[in-house]
Automatic annotation (TrEMBL):
A Pfam family this chain is assigned to: p450
Keyword annotations: Heme, Iron, Metal-binding, Monooxygenase, Oxidoreductase
Similarity field: Belongs to the cytochrome P450 family.
One of the GO biological process terms: cholesterol catabolic process
Sample GO molecular function, one term: iron ion binding
UniProt-recorded name of the protein: Cytochrome P450
The keyword tRNA processing is assigned to this record: no
Disordered: annotated span: 1-26
Domain of life from the UniProt record: Bacteria
Length: 416
């Protein structure tokens, strides 16, 4: 039996423990309360059936151990049907087999070698001083301007696009245009400007055309990533034009939207716990562990989608072939069986086995570049300012995929 959305009927599955709560609701006002919902459910329902509400029904995986199992067992939990609940489909994503994010092993390994090798070849080490200098410049400008700034517009939106632009070899004058598009690709639901999903699809299409054009217009001798992906080297196979474009898009979107969200979440944590700002100024060596804690505490990725390839069992639940399975890493990263006092923002947390960068074959290849940016922003902020306080309410983005702010007014006190 199939439902209208094309996924198998769930009539045999256990009842939904949260019939009145929609985890896939993109409304930030309601999404804010989900951390409590997860906390209440985790001990008894690490995996449960979430019946169709605003989106088709799915298995919700909210416990740490079960999330790890889904991430690691890509043979059973396939990524090729789409990455989010809004793009998930019963057949495979049209980009599957070409774009790393929606391709399963063994084909995934070929694409991953091409994409991942750019991070392994010392690229991040070379980019570190350039990113660091750019971040310093931005924050010095913020200090010189004085008064109140929107941290998102002044810092968080700019740094990841700049870093991704350097990685991909994109023209600097295009970066504002790219920032505006990448800010839209994971919006969902309806907003004041109409259907956000339509706007998101349009932004995605525009970015895809942009990368296709970049590849076409570049000539011999050009060393950009898009070009290198298409050309290949002695160690890695050349990608087809379509594959190069799709994976450049994957890198640009994957690299900017997540890092931007973490930067805003980190800032929000510092505003919420001002004693942390002072503690970090007194102990700058804690910056790297504070950055990891920001990724854990306010995980930017709300959910990631998979589809079961075969009947299986997960935390005692019978999952059937064809079932949509969604992991909620924000919840896994607050699992009390793994993290002591999981709701505390603890800049010294050790060990911190968070899964903000995922695990298994699809684990984030951009982790190193993300850390460089996050550490640079936090480090220079602590050096240039002695305090930061909220200068108005922040606005969370409307998305069931990402948790991050679209506006975060801050008043910094310059350090003497
Ligand atoms: C704090 C920032 C970041 C976070 C939290 C993050 C998180 C993630 C997560 C959770 C995944 C796994 C997706 C899945 O399992 O379906 C992923 C994959 C990916 N990320 Fe990141 N990411 C960050 C930064 C970056 C950066 C800076 C880049 C590149 C410039 C990047 C590029 C990618 C790519 C290409 C994938 C797909 C890998 C694959 O499917 O094999 N990410 N990221």
């Amino acid at each position: 039996m199939t439902t209208t959305d094309g996924f198998p009927s769930r009539v045999l599955h256990p009842s939904d423990p949260i019939p009145d709560i929609d985890l896939a609701d993109p409304d930030p006002a309601r999404a804010g309360a989900l951390d409590q919902v997860f906390t209440d459910l985790r001990p008894t329902h690490p995996v449960f059936w979430h019946r169709a509400k605003s989106r088709p029904g799915f298995w919700a995986v909210i416990g740490y151990a079960a999330t790890m199992q889904v991430y690691r067992d890509s043979g059973t939990f396939s990524a090729r049907h789409g990455m989010t609940i809004d793009s998930l489909r019963p057949d495979q994503d049209p980009a599957s087999g070409m774009m790393v994010e929606v391709t399963d092993p063994p084909e995934h390994r070929r694409l991953r070698r091409s994409v991942g090798a750019f991070f392994a070849d010392g690229v991040v080490t070379d980019l570190t001083p350039v990113v660091d200098a750019y971040v310093r410049r931005l924050l010095v400008e913020v200090r010189e301007r004085g008064g109140t700034v929107d941290f998102v517009e002044a810092v968080a939106a700019k740094v990841p696009t700049h870093a991704a632009g350097l990685l991909l070899g994109l023209p600097l004058e295009d970066l504002d245009w790219i920032t505006a598009r990448t800010a839209q690709v994971f919006l969902s639901g309806s907003g004041t400007r109409g259907d956000l999903r339509e706007a998101a699809e349009q932004a995605n299409g525009e970015l895809l055309s942009y990368f296709a054009k970049q590849l076409r217009k570049r000539g011999a001798g050009d060393d950009s990533l898009v070009r290198r992906l298409a050309a290949g080297t002695a160690n890695r196979e050349a990608l087809s034009t379509g594959e190069a474009v799709l994976n450049a898009l994957n890198l640009a979107i994957g690299g900017t939207t997540t890092t931007r969200s973490v930067l805003t979440n980190l800032m929000e944590a510092l505003l919420r716990f001002p004693e942390t700002f002072q503690a970090l100024r007194d102990e700058p060596s804690a910056v790297p562990s504070a950055v990891e804690e920001a990724v854990r505490w306010a995980n930017p990725v709300r959910h990631l989608a998979r589809v079961a390839t075969r009947d299986t069992e997960l935390a005692g639940m019978d999952i059937r072939a064809g079932d949509p399975v969604l992991v909620w890493p924000r919840s896994a990263n607050r699992d009390e069986s793994v993290f002591a006092e999981p709701h505390r923002f603890d800049i010294h947390r050790r060990p911190n086995a968070h899964i903000g960068f995922a695990a298994g074959p699809h684990s984030c290849p951009g982790t190193g570049l993300a850390r460089v940016q996050l550490r640079a922003v936090l480090g220079h902020m602590l050096d240039l300012f002695s305090a930061a306080e909220p200068a108005g309410p922040g606005e969370l983005m409307q998305s069931n995929f990402l948790h991050g702010y679209t506006r975060l007014p801050v008043r910094f006190t310059p350090a003497s």
